[in-house]
Model the fold of this input.
Amino acid sequence: MPVIEVNGVSHTYDDGRTVLSDLDLRLDEPRVGVVGANGSGKSTFARLLNGLVLPTAGTVTIDGLDSKRDGRAVRRRVGFCFTDPDAQIVMPTVAEDVAFGLRRRGFSKVEVGRRTEAALTAYGLDGHADHPAHLLSGGQKQLLALASVLVTEPELLVMDEPTTLLDLRNAMRVATAVAALPQQVLLVTHHLDLLADFDRVLVFDEGRVVCDDSPEPAVAHYRKLMDAP
Amino acid sequence: MLGLYRPGRSFVHRMPAGVKLCVLVAAGIGSVFLDHAWQVAVALVVVGLLYLAAGLSPTAIGRQLRPLLWIGLVTAVFHLVVNGWQRAVVVVGVVAALVLLAGLVTLTTRTSDLVAAVVRAARPLRLLRVDPERLGLTIAVAIRCVPVVVGLANEVRDAQRARGLTASPRAFAVPLLVRSLRHADALGEALAARGLDD
Done:
């Protein structure tokens, strides 16, 4: 598993809002969950891990690669799945979207075709290869987004609330797909049930980690935090 | 282009996208020289045969022509009154043949192949510091965004109706623009996450 190291990280946006303060973490567990209220800094934290957001202080490293200095290498190791699959699907048809990342990595046409087909089969989208992406259901779109990221074989998958826009059935489909992944997964979510089998859960509040524990006590801490006036 | 592609193995499907685009451009230029109703009829028959050769049903032809119905009628009536029936047939027939031909290209060609053809054609633009790959990606992303923006427009219109603002262009345009810009931001972030700048 890759080792994520966050050392003295703070992040302040251009408008002066500080969303993360003095984070120090070392994450090497296969499954890490992140919970917190809206605006607690968890999405910014997730974006730090593949260099979409760079820390204004401190360093983020993945297997020793610095997100500022080695951004390209970090992005190759870290796949990112967003909340809204419509914003993540960049090509008009299902197969074209899966092939997009592979083409940019310079794979041959034959290899792109082979890997695309395998990814579509793995996520139950093989019958939709030439379908327009916008005609898929919400769950299928999120599975497509997942397939498009995983086809490039990242070592770490960061997911920012991937089930928030889905109904229960589709959320379960995505959760089942994620559970079967061999990769390290960092999941930001409001669906606390998904974290039951995780190794470690971080609770964010006002830009800080206020609880870092196994799922049961961490979720209990989060519930108590949300109940507080 | 917005998801009209119908998979198939016909010679029309197998023809390279660049060749199809060149034929389309040549047909557009050539159509200027069609002056007689029988010439237009021949062009329409040829296009119709190409649809059949591609394994597409006459319904597909009807679907391509349906959006042209009203504008075709107005154009036909105008030419009928001003230039006579032969000119009306030529003008409306040429437009129909070209729309059908363009439709045939999109029905039988994957967007990625069309974009690849545009990228190849744009290679000389490198001399002007234009990146053909980026140009192709821009086209593909623009095609992808059309249904997304249509979806956003429907959502904004529904929200308008729910609040009783049925005829307010400003109440429609402002949230649509804001949501489209937000979508563009999110799309940019997704492209960066998927290694666009790597």
Summary: Chain A touches chain B at residues 50, 52, 72, 75-76, 79-80, 82, 84, 86-93, 96, 99-101, 104-105, 130-135, 148-149, 152 (CB under 8 Å). The longest strand of chain A covers residues 18-27. Chain A has a mean pLDDT of 90. The longest helix of chain A spans residues 109-122.
